Amino acid sequence: MKGKKDGVGIRAGQALWARDYRVAVAVLLGITCGVIWASLHPHGFFTSSKTASQTNFQGRGSQGQPSDGHVLLLEAKVSVLQSELVKLKTENKNLLLIKQQMQVVEQERDAARKQLLELGPPRKAGPWGTAKSLRTNQAVLPDESVNPDLAKLLQDVAINKELIVGISNNNVRSMLQVWFESIQRVGVTNYLVVALDDEIAQFCKDHKVPVYRRDATISKAQANTGDNHAISGLKFHLLREFLVLGYSVLLSDVDILYFQNPFSYLQRDCDVESMTDGYDNATAYGYDDVSDDQSMGWARYAHTMRIWVFNSGLFYIRPTVPSIELLDRVTDRLSKEKAWDQAVFNEELFYPSHPGYEGLHASRRVLDYLLFLNSKMVFKILRKQGNFAQYKPVTIHVNYHPDKYDRMVALIDYFVNGKTDALDRFPDGSEWPSR
Q1: At 203, phi and psi to the nearest 5?
Q2: Higher pLDDT, 23 or 96
Q3: b vs e for 151-180, b when ≥16 Cβ sit within 10 Å of the residue's Cβ?
Q4: pLDDT tens for residues 171-196?
Q5: How many whole angstroms separate alpha carbon 369 and alpha carbon 137?
Q6: Residues 71, 1: Cα–Cα separation, whole Å
Q7: At residue 309, does pLDDT exceed 50?
Q8: Do 322 and 137 meet the contact criterion of CB atoms below 8 Å apart?
Q9: ∠ Cα 364 366 368 (to 5°)
Q10: Strand arrangement, sheet containing 395-397
Q11: Ramachandran angles phi, psi of 206, nearest 5°
């Protein structure tokens, strides 16, 4: 019995000790929690909103500064958000590229459908208003044997079988740099400089600009037309190889600035899409010009059709037979005539067939003159409008003014660098050269 009582006593003592231990631990935990709470809320449990906000902004460090842990937390958050932003920008860029590719595919699909109808058996005209003729001619079969080196280069540079091509020698180096920097700024990578001398070829390589070195001889007929016009006349001959290789080209003079991706604004439904020298709907797209000859009495008025010329400094040309024939015609005439290449370009595009002459059957489209701007539109008209600061052109061609480089730099300052007075010093037009 005594042993049993001793065992009961021992167990009772152990239970009492365990109970006291638990109480002690609970008290110790309570004190610890109280100390932590007090350090986090030095102003008490019930705090005014003002004091609480002060605690949130100041109660992390001894001098009202956030603690190291808080700084590290914010830095980590900024880093994560920056990574997310980069990811979103990349995804958005990819979406834009996919959208552009889809646009090209849809345009090619529609063109192929029309070509298929034309190549099929003869068909009835159909109901009134449904007859549509073919405007999008079929592309030629590429022939890489004409220039294997260029064919390999274009495989790396072109996107969707199209690219911007500029032709330059070392005399226009400064303008060329402004030109390709504006292209790079809008994210276009499918562009190429055709370098006519070693200096400009090396200059492009130094600036990581895609370049193709090409020798070209100015014809005797073009030798005294001025450097710019002589080089401009060469482009029709040089472009031929691009088209024969199966590539569409946005031919661009180097006095042109890019502010948006031009490939997003092309229709690709004609052989040639060109910017215009016109400055309103009538001059850009055509109008009825009435001639008045009073000596004819009742028949004194004669109606004529007028349109301002296509600008041969910026045009998109597809690899079709009519397009290549256009280049051949212009090249042939410029090799024999002392003529302005832009005038010849338009004559071959627009002159109809007549006795002794067979007209070119090339389809053509005028680019939107409010997006693909000439410099007359900019300096004489648009800059005087109240909302000009918010205007976002696709391209601006400084074709109406001889002080090209200065105006190009000023346009970059205005549209890119936000200098609202950058254009103020330039007159609408330009002074006549001194004689």
Answers
A1: -60, -45
A2: 96
A3: bebbeebbebbbbbbbbbbeebeebbbbbb
A4: 999 999 999 999 999 999 999 999 99
A5: 24
A6: 71
A7: yes
A8: yes
A9: 155
A10: 256-258, 395-397, 372-374
A11: -65, -30
